Amino acid sequence: MSRFRVTIAMAAASLIGLFAVLLPTTTASAEAVTPAQACDYPDWVAGSWYNAGDIVRYTDGNHYIAEHDNPGYDPVISTWYWDPYNCDGGGDPGPTDFVISEAQFNQLFPNRNPFYTYAGLVQATEAFPAFASTGGDTVSKQEAAAFLANTAHETGDYVHIVEQDTSNYPHYCDPGQSFGCPAGDAAYYGRGPIQLSWNFNYNAAGNALGLPLLTNPWLVEQDSAVAWKTALWYWMTQSGPGTMTAHDAIVNGHGFGQTIWAINGSLECNGGNPGQVQSRVDRYNTITGLIGVSPGGNLYC
């Protein structure tokens, strides 16, 4: 983005008087016209074709610009196809502060693997502007806490980057998918904060994020921001064995218990494994306590 003296001895007073007359008129005109013109963009419509450079108003009230041609992908899901757009002048407004500070993150997970960086997490949140920023301060903090509680549980407090049981690795290729398993039948094992697995999940996440995860799933264990992004992709867009996404569970007031359903369903819920459920709830209570927000109701599933 670009951001926008001459001394004349004779007739200086006349020139100053002229500028004093002209400047207010010019400024008022710019203030009256520019914002109205800059904000006059159509609402985003799912399934409509958009060309690179098109600007839309999304359902969250924010504006987004198409970085690449796309068939109406959701602007808050894929930053390959869309970027946030500053309505009153164009350009990316830049990342906002995450509701959990780096100091709090370090305090919560002092023994984490260095791979799971706070910077990578914050970078990943830019791909999903609605994450931990919807519904006011309380709900935003509850969502951030719920996400960290579940992903910390999945990874042993961010110690493990990949699935530990290597005997499972060959099981995650579904050859019935039209795109197959180009990285190899044993390449789609669990990786990252939510342990992304299966070739179809790598394909879907890669398409949404604009990353070649189907052909190079190792990116998830090599790049911290990519790992966090895949976890947020699942959190924001996938209901898994549940009836809603984890994001919707929190922002619509259904409670932390529904986030567990979205991740592991009956394997843990409804008596499937109460110990695992309790582990997630304990982490959630610890995080909400540290950041000073009520955990809300419906903690169990």
Task: Give the helix/strand layout.
Elements: H1 12-38, E1 55-57, E2 63-66, E3 82-85, H2 102-108, H3 118-125, H4 136-155, H5 199-209, H6 219-222, H7 224-237, H8 246-251, H9 256-264, H10 274-291
Antiparallel strand pairs: 1-2, 2-3
Helix pairs in contact: 3-7, 4-10, 5-7
From the structure above, extract its key features.
Glyco_hydro_19, Seminal Fluid Protein  PDC-109 (Domain B), three-stranded antiparallel beta sheet, 10 helices, Lysozyme, globular, single chain, Chitinase, Endochitinase, domain 2, disordered N terminus, mainly alpha, 3 domains, 301 residues
Overall description:
Strand 1 and strand 2 (63-66) form a beta hairpin. Helix 3 (118-125) crosses helix 7 (224-237). The longest helix has 27 residues, at 12-38. The chain has ten helices and three strands; from the N terminus they run αβββααααααααα. Helices cover 41% and strands 4% of the residues. Residues 1-38 and 89-96 have low confidence and may be disordered. Strands 1-2-3 form a three-stranded antiparallel sheet, with no helix packed on it. It has three domains: 35-94, Carbohydrate-binding module superfamily 5/12 (Seminal Fluid Protein  PDC-109 (Domain B)); 102-159 and 228-291, Lysozyme; 166-223, Endochitinase, domain 2 (2-Layer Sandwich). By secondary structure, it is mainly alpha-helical. It is globular. InterPro entries: CBM5/12, Glyco_hydro_19, Glyco_hydro_19_cat, Lysozyme-like_dom_sf.
